[in-house]
Amino acid sequence: MNYTHGNLLFKVKQLILLVLYFVGCISFGFSQQLPKGKNLVNDQKIQYLKTKGEFSKITTSKENETVSFLIETIKEPKFIYNCATSIPIEKKSYPKGTVFLLSYDAKTVTASLETGEAKLLWLFKQLPSYKGNIASTQSISSDWQTYYIPFEANRPIAKEDLGIVMQYGFRPQSFLLKNIKFEVFPKGTQLAQLPKTKITYKGMEANAEWRKLANQRIESIRKGNFTVQFTKDGKPVSEKVVKIELKKHLFPFGARMHAEDIVNNTDDYKNFKKAFNSLVLGNDLKIKRWKNKEKRETTLKALEILQKEGFPVKGHVLVWPGFNYLPTSIKNHTENPEKVIQIIENHVKSILEATNEKISHWDVVNEAYTNRDLQKITGSEDILYKAFQIAAQKQPKARRFTNEYGIISKGGIDTQKQQWYYDFIKRIDENTNGLVQGIGIQSHIGSDLTPPERVLEILSFYATLGKQISISEFTMDIQDAEIREQYTRDFMIAAFSHPNVVEFLFWGNTEDGRGKCDIFTKENEIGIMGKAFFSLVHDAWKTKFNSTTSKNGTLVGRGFYGEYEYSFVEDGKVVKGTFEVKPRSKRTILIEL
After folding, report:
1. pLDDT of amino acid 2
2. Where in 116-172 does DSSP place strands (E)?
3. Angle at 494 (CA atoms; ends 490, 500), nearest 5 degrees
4. Do 167 and 290 belong to one domain?
5. SS3 letters for 503-571?
């Protein structure tokens, strides 16, 4: 080794040591800043983790005082919660805002998914019912890795309700788990202070090929060329600089609203009008709410306002066949199927008659996969088919949709449910002579982010049925601002790029404390999801340009389909007007001033 080379190596070693020193200092400083939590896991009881049923098993082993668990999903159950284990913890009541940290070491042993990873879903329980759960789904690496999942209580938790539950009822798989901790932190600890395993999804990189192709499809299917000719007193308005701006998309971008907010013109409705061009009513057209005459009057008044202000309304829902969503009169007649059929048909007929010409399209049947009480009482799905027939008869102009959840969400891996929904739609068509016109795909997105390419695959699968597709209920559970904004944007790009998708509806508008949808914040500012929405609908997808008319008074342009405003200055005054650009319309738009 010559002197120069040796000296260089010495300097490199010095640099490495210096870097390691600073990293150590930073790490030490960071660890010093971390609040100290109390582990609630019962170390004695956790050694006896068990699972029930035929679908899974847990094998415990111990090495050097460390207990590890081999968790196997032997057969995929109908519902993932059929394979579940509650972690034994010390229970106590906690106030809203308390933060917790779940951590564990895990590695995949065997997997059935294309990614080669096992999956598990953690439920942070706050209430006796499932509604209080905060869910987090995690894919497990093939190498040992420590995972961190912080939770913040969004309500006071009673001692008996606190829980942390592991669900693993996915496709056949096995994974190892050890060093499970569930820590609670002192008052004042912020969620951002705790470590967190970063959530990612395939296709999130800036130069992702799927996004490039999606934007090319958007350019092709959502935009068109147009020619406008301006005349005055029969003569061309030539060499005039005209400002052209899209004011209202033809494509429906909408949100869920409540009739009461519309009637009272609340901030939520005012925010809605700044962002959207269509909507779906949340609870107002459901059978339980409709039975209340006072609330019914509010709903009808809201529909009149929306009609007057030019907002198309999706009706939700004619038949939701589960006891939880039906009046008590149904339960009172479970032994009398004829009476149940009569109650449902009378409701469907009456609400369609009362809302005629006020609804653009209906969710005729909602969530029939998990809600089967009407089918069980009556012995078949005929009661659902009949709803489509009545809808076609009473409101022939209103399009008829089905609606279902868990199709695109959960990573898009539930192929069993996807196939059921596909076959269900075919069964309705076969029994009603093709009365299904649209497929509603709810998109309540948890922490298990479905890659955009998979979203497009699922949409294309349903497109083979030859029907319109609605993204009917988009929400996001992830609160991390960066991923929340980016995934909202990517999901919208994917959906808007698919030719069969005919609307995109958010299940919410102004943030309401549930953390599901924040187009606007409680302070009426643009929220995290709102940043993604406005960056697309009101920026990237909003055509705006200036053009000079030719000698014969024409100008040509290309833009997104919808209603445009033109404006120019004439004799010191601003002249304004509107015109529409529609698909497959090649006629010159004639504007006589």
Report:
1. 42
2. 118-125, 134-140, 145-152, 163-167
3. 155
4. no
5. EEEECCCECCCCCCCCCECCCCCECHHHHHHHHHHHHHCCCEEEEECCCCCEEEEEEECEEEEEEEEEC
Residue 426 lies in a domain: yes
100 close to 185: Cβ distance less than 8 angstroms: yes
How far lies 514's CA from each of 123, 194, 476, in Å? 16, 21, 10
> For the chain, percent helix, then strand, then coil, each to nearest 5?
35, 30, 35
| Any domain includes 133 | yes
Task: Give me the number of domains the chain comprises.
Answer: 2
Sign of the alpha-carbon dihedral angle for 154, 488, 486, 467? positive
Helical residues (DSSP H) of 74-162, grouped into ranges: none
Angle between helices 337-354 and 382-394 (to 10 degrees): 20
**Domain assignment of residue 268, given as a range:** 252-538
The per-residue pLDDT of the chain, averaged, comes to: 92
Contact, 50 vs 98, CB < 8 A? no
What CATH number corresponds to the domain at position 372? Answer: 3.20.20.80
Tell me, what amino acid is at 122?
A: W
Q: Predicted confidence band at 362 (pLDDT cuts at 50, 70, 90)?
A: very high
Write the CB contacts of 262 (distance below 8 Å, at least 6 apart in sequence). 269, 302, 305, 306
171 and 273 assigned to the same domain: no
pLDDT of 180 higher than 60: yes
Count CB neighbours of 8 within 10 A.
11
* Helix, coil or strand: residue 134: strand
User: Are 176 and 301 part of one and the same domain?
Assistant: no
**Minimum mean pLDDT range among 25-39, 171-185, 288-302, 403-417:** 25-39
pLDDT at 116: 64
Segment 192-199 mean pLDDT: 88
Q: Which single residue is written with the structure tokens 């596909």?
A: 422
pLDDT score of 4 = 41
The whole-number average pLDDT for the span 295-307 is 98
Return the percentage of the chain with pLDDT > 70, whole number.
94
Instruction: Find the CATH number of the domain harbouring 57.
Output: 2.60.120.260
- pLDDT of 33: 65
Query: Three-state SS for 208?
Result: coil
Domain boundary among 492, 507, 538: 538
**Any idea which of 30-39, 460-469, 540-549 has the lowest mean pLDDT?**
30-39
Q: What are phi and psi of 259, to 5 degrees?
A: -55, -40
C-alpha 253/C-alpha 506 separation (Å) is: 8
Beta bridge partners of 119: 139
- Pairwise CA distance, residues 34 & 364, whole Å: 52
Task: Give the Cα separation of 55 and 196 in Å (integer).
Answer: 31
pLDDT for 106? 95
Q: What's the pLDDT tens digit per position in 115-158?
A: 567 889 899 999 988 777 898 878 788 789 999 999 999 999 99
- Distance separating alpha carbons of residues 127 and 154, to the nearest angstrom: 11
Nearest one of 370, 295, 359 to 325, comparing CA atoms: 370
Confidence of residue 5 (pLDDT cuts 50, 70, 90): very low
CB 180 within 8 A of CB 89: no
pTM here is 0.77
DSSP 436: -
